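User: My instructor asked us to take a sequence, write out its structure as tokens, and then describe one feature of it. I'm not sure where to start. Here is the sequence I was given:
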Amino acid sequence: MDTLLTADIAANAPRYRRKSSTFIDAIHDVVEDDNRAPAQLYSTMSGRLFHSGRIAIVMVGLPARGKTHIAVSMARYLQWLGVKTRIFHLGDYRRATVGEGGHVPEDYFYPNASPASVVLRQKILKKCREDIYGWLNHENGQVAIYDAVNPTASGRRSLAKEFAKHDVQTLFLESYVDDDHLLLENARNVKISSPDFADMDPNEAANLYLERMETKIPTFETMNEKELNYIKMINAGQKFFYNNVSFNYLSHRIVFYLTNTHIKSRATFFVRAGAATEEESSKADAPLSEEGVKYANVMAETVIKHREHERALLVAKDGPNTPLRPLSVWCSTRLRTLQTADAFKDRGYKVRQRSQMSQINPGVCERLSERAIRRLYPEEVEKHELDPYHHRYPRAESYHDLAVRLEPIILELEREQNDLVIIAHESVLRVLYAYLMHCSTTHIPNLKFPRNEIIEIIPAAYQNEAKRIHIPGLDPKTVPGSPEDIKIPVPDSGSETPVPLPGGGLPTPAITIDKPPEKVVNTAAEAVRDKITDVD
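Assistant: Let's start with the prediction itself. The structure tokens for your sequence are:
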């Protein structure tokens, strides 16, 4: 009996499944509905977009080159646009075959492997590809990302011919790294968390890991097959080389995205703007109140101290004693966000204004209470309650409109290499956070960002990780979040501190004036530890 798990079974197993919540990245959830495409512009009967057929993106590269990181980031962007995309990690199939705690033979990756290793390898490859074809053919999938080493030119040619027989276009994507510093950083940050490297110096462990990989995968041929469609991404985006990538619009969109992304480590901080003198109006470009100015200064100090504390912890664990990455600050052109950003500007940090980051437009509902909205626009309220993400009130924006407006910001977010603070209205933070953590459109209008918290997101290879940092010493009146969605556009100053999404995540800390900064780490990291130390 074949005990190999399919991708669906593996992804739904408790060991792999990660339900979406405020603090858990849902990029690997098996989607059962169409609520994962916040910026989709249109739909088709087939479910495929941009007049493009089925595409297999085949990853190529040795371990610690950032293949999985790139694959996950690309899937995140394509799904955001509405392209039905799924990642097929070959390592998932290998683990399912050998069982928990099992290992493949030493010669598993060798070109001249033993017959037993060849049979095992072919069995794993066959099951993975069957799942790819099944998803593309029977579930209207459009882009399948095949995440594996794919080390030889002959193997890649055979793979392209096999996909062509199934009427699937193939695009190879190689992550090539010849920068020793970048290679060591990738291995140190991602690959050395297995028990084999416990209590070792991180640099020594990274070098040992790379030596092991050279032994396990002795033959690797970089891409130079002129007849194939491929992209070679060199040193995490320093250079690009394209060959024959011109078969449809979607392929060009993928290339455009890749030129705007990288795999270098950085952190993104989401913070609310301070309270304004006229909180109930979006049209009145009101300045910060006295409490808002105090909030901005406390918040800025909290971010700065947190970064210094994180660096000190890293150095204490024998990490590299490198300077902090530069810190950039983005805000909208609204006066309250500009004045909140002044707390960073006064401390010497660069602030960039982004006009696309203005809050969602409430239209005719501005300044109206929920009772008034229900009395004046009962039909609109009914429509809104059915679909709060896509519905727009008269002369207003929907969250979908906002997501489309923010696409240039998302590409800039992918391109940014510095640590980044984003200061914005809660509606903007909801959409940008939903992109990075792959939240459903049904959840986006209800995400909470109270002012006494800073949300930090760190891009990681297999999934993004989120942390929550408590801001101490704030007046409780400045803490309540803005309304759940546009249905109630007037902030309720008497509301309690909001909590994250029900059914997952972590509770919001209670407000304590003298409480020191508190950090809560994503508990999903342990669930994928065996994946990030993988050799595939």
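For the description part of your assignment, you could build on this observation: Residues 1-22, 483-514, 516-530 have pLDDT under 50 and may be disordered. Try explaining in your own words what that tells you about the chain.
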